[in-house]
Amino acid sequence: MSLDSVLNRIDDQLPSALERLKELMRIPSISTDPAYDDDCDRAAAWLVKDLQSIGIEAETRKTPGRAMVVGHFNGSEAANTPHVLFYGHYDVQPVDPLNLWDTAPFEPEVQDAPNGQVIRGRGAADDKGQLMTFIEACRAYKDVTGTLPCNMTFFFEGEEESGSPSLIPFLEANKDELSADLALVCDTGMVAPGVPSIASQLRGMLKDEFTLHGPRIDLHSGHYGGPALNPLKEISRLIASFHDENGRVAVQGFYDGVEDVPAELLRQWENCGFDEHEYLSSVGMTMAHGETGYSTLVQQWARPTLEINGLWGGYQGVGTKTVIPAQAHCKLTCRLVGQMDPDALRDKIRKHVEDRLPKDARVTWNNSLEGSPASVMNTERPEFEKARQALSDEWGREAVFSGMGGSIPVTRFFTDILNLDSMLIGFGLEDDAIHSPNEKYNVESFHKGTRSWARVLDRITQA
Amino acid sequence: MSLDSVLNRIDDQLPSALERLKELMRIPSISTDPAYDDDCDRAAAWLVKDLQSIGIEAETRKTPGRAMVVGHFNGSEAANTPHVLFYGHYDVQPVDPLNLWDTAPFEPEVQDAPNGQVIRGRGAADDKGQLMTFIEACRAYKDVTGTLPCNMTFFFEGEEESGSPSLIPFLEANKDELSADLALVCDTGMVAPGVPSIASQLRGMLKDEFTLHGPRIDLHSGHYGGPALNPLKEISRLIASFHDENGRVAVQGFYDGVEDVPAELLRQWENCGFDEHEYLSSVGMTMAHGETGYSTLVQQWARPTLEINGLWGGYQGVGTKTVIPAQAHCKLTCRLVGQMDPDALRDKIRKHVEDRLPKDARVTWNNSLEGSPASVMNTERPEFEKARQALSDEWGREAVFSGMGGSIPVTRFFTDILNLDSMLIGFGLEDDAIHSPNEKYNVESFHKGTRSWARVLDRITQA
């Protein structure tokens, strides 16, 4: 068979592939709201049927939450090819605020836009459109060759947007069935439009939350203002103490385990097409506000952070209430890199706070929040270089191993539970508005994404 | 006539006076909730009838909100006595949380308690019980002498607990009718049990509120954590900058107009029976947290403050949201003393914040919040020393000119609109639980409070 025939087939079938994607997008599979449980089931069933239509043995599998979709193709006659597991998720984010949508979120439309056509609607990019790039690549293979280029497992979950509560138990219970040589994941983006990207390092995360307790009860600021310890003032002091004037985290030992970016990778990043000006100005910033001495991209991909995500106490209504509240609250997350140990870090942050408590104050911590270390992909595996070449061929410019500021926990579970390396290739763009109103996916991302997977599958199944 | 006869009459009539107070307390005159509008009307009508029963020409007067009660007595034959205006309020605070009440809030009961009998129920102390001490003193005068010791105006409002929206227009519209020589107000407390107190200085108040704006939209902490300006971190830095390490407000010029407490007043305060340990420990504090070098009492009565009353931004729900919010919010109030000018102070605070804004941040202010300077009562008037002697006689210990941490705005309106000095005498105690469940008023406060007013009226109407 020839790769060109497969790519031609993809080109020919683009209109019907878009129709299939629209069908899937019309199902409001919002996993965070139980009102949409049946729709999640419908989306899972739709995927089972679609996988079956290209010869894959697929079924939905019950969990205490939303169903998993598992499909197997073991009919490959090619020798010495890797068995790949492809992961995606069929659930989507809620759509509110609905009034900010220009179209109905679950009535997808292909529209003309300044940078080419887009398909607009909830799930277009996250993750229905991306997930379908892989399925459409397989369909084209099947149409042209009557088979698929290697044995495959398909694994789709329906709880990614709601914290994946069933994922770990399911992986543990179905370890053998899900065993493979390499996981492929299509849930990431490109560094810049037209720059094919393999996400090779993801920051980890530590979550913590504390309440600062001052007076035994809320006090009146007339009667106690002056002598009273004010938890809002004190929590502000504590939070202000987390960073020094250069934007460095001032918690002792915070940077233990942080590693410098290798020079070769840094060179790749510098030339990866990341548009710093666009990245900053699109959200109203004129400069990077992180650690002095690091580029915007390095601050985002390769430096750890301590961010305050929630802060509250006292009166929030209209007008004034002369209250000195008994408590103040803070939610924080850290993004971790290198070998930073989330458990050790949690202790350091808590010590930092406890060492700085004023007299008559105490702190309580939320002990239900977990952490996960950073992930670095195993780019030494030959499939990474092969994929990089395949992507470079498709997009006509060198593909990059990019960093990622966020975390994709599933890759860590694949490593820990299935002993499986992951390769993350995705075609999302900065302006796709995932999790926001008017989500879209460029038709180019969908079309060339599908072609990219065909090329990647072709390349990694060759010696 | 003899003062002793009046005092004896008060002693004899205590049981029926308590019954009258209970009648008034049974009317749920909550002014903040329109569901109780009719009850507010009933309370006003009850007062009119009660005033009429002692020969006072009284009526309710309509306002856009709750009615005012105005009563006049002009039949005094005593020459050269001052015309006094007595102010109180018949409305009460809401009663929630209802489950924390041990008795029904509007079914008042006289109960035995560790420090003597109390009358328990909403409004017992704030302000129905206090207001009735004055009326009962007048009733005893009337019973014994057939008249009152001087000409009087009675002025009760029903919106004190809901911001007094009708007060200023009513005073302005009825300036002539309400003119008098001295206002008497019974809505304050005693410094300590058994220590008769005339509140001679009240702190003023400045209210302000700002929003700190950072990124144009809420950001994801994976994608923007590091480079992004985090408004929660920045607002914490700003708030932390409001005070120095000695608890002094670090806003430039903040203390302009602050005056030291005169040595003689300070001596009175030092011996006023204020129980610092009880004041602090009752709310879980072991020390005063205000300005170093000032006593707890001075911090509360005579030093200005800048307190944060509300602080919020980002995610406040259960668990974690990896958000860097676009905005953070802060509500603050200052308590003012001496000659501090609220308008000038507002400008200084705003400048302090604006001078410390990081790049890419901006601040917006709520311009709808007002301020009022501190009030110092005109204790040079002879009535103050006379009242102090009268109170000392009744309570068997020297009465004090006390400070007050809070503000009683009506006294300022009397000064500004009616050109009328106020004298604030009240018998409330720290543990009366005003605004809280299980509000009470000591029967001793009610009884000796009534006797106190008889003595005060007797003394100030003598040469």
Tags for this model:
homodimer, 463 residues, alpha+beta, Aminopeptidase, Alpha-Beta Plaits, 2 domains, nine-stranded mixed sheet, 21% strand
Q: What's the CATH H-level superfamily name of the largest domain in chain A?
A: Zn peptidases
- End-to-end Cα distance of chain A, whole Å, is 16 Å
Provide a count of the helices of chain A: 12
By oligomeric state, this entry counts as homodimer
Q: Largest interface, and how many residues on either side?
A: A-B, 79 and 78 residues
The structural domain count of chain A equals 2
Low-pLDDT windows of residues of chain A: none
Give the overall silhouette of chain A: globular
Classification by helices and strands of chain A: alpha+beta
CATH topology of the largest domain in chain A: Aminopeptidase
The average pLDDT score of chain A comes to 95
What composes the largest sheet of chain A?
9 strands, mixed
Tell me how many strands of chain A there are: 19
CATH architecture of the largest domain in chain A: 3-Layer(aba) Sandwich
Name the beta content range of chain A: 15-25%
Description of the molecule:
The structure is a homodimer of 463-residue chains. Chain A has 463 residues and is of the alpha+beta class. Chain A folds into two domains: 3-202 and 374-460, Zn peptidases (Aminopeptidase, 3-Layer(aba) Sandwich), CATH 3.40.630.10; 204-258 and 304-372, Alpha-Beta Plaits (2-Layer Sandwich), CATH 3.30.70.360. In chain A, 32% of the residues lie in helices and 21% in strands. Chain A contains twelve helices and 19 strands. The first copy, chain A, has helices at residues 3-25, 37-52, 128-145, 167-173, 231-240, 263-270, 276-281, 296-301, 342-355, 382-395, 409-418, 443-460, and strands at residues 57-61, 68-73, 84-89, 109-113, 116-120, 152-157, 182-185, 197-202, 204-213, 219-220, 305-314, 323-324, 327-336, 362-365, 371-372, 375-376, 400-404, 422-425, 440-442. In chain A, strands 1, 2, 3, 6, 7, 8, 16, 17 and 18 form a nine-stranded mixed beta sheet that branches. In chain A, strands 9, 11, 13, 14 and 15 form a five-stranded antiparallel beta sheet that branches. In chain A, strand 4 and strand 5 form a beta hairpin. In chain A, helix 3 (128-145) crosses helix 12 (443-460) and helix 4 runs parallel beside helix 11. The longest helix of chain A is centred in the first third of the chain and has 23 residues, at 3-25. The two termini of chain A are 16 Å apart. The mean pLDDT of chain A is 95. Strand 11 of chain A pairs antiparallel with strand 11 of chain B, so a sheet runs across the interface.
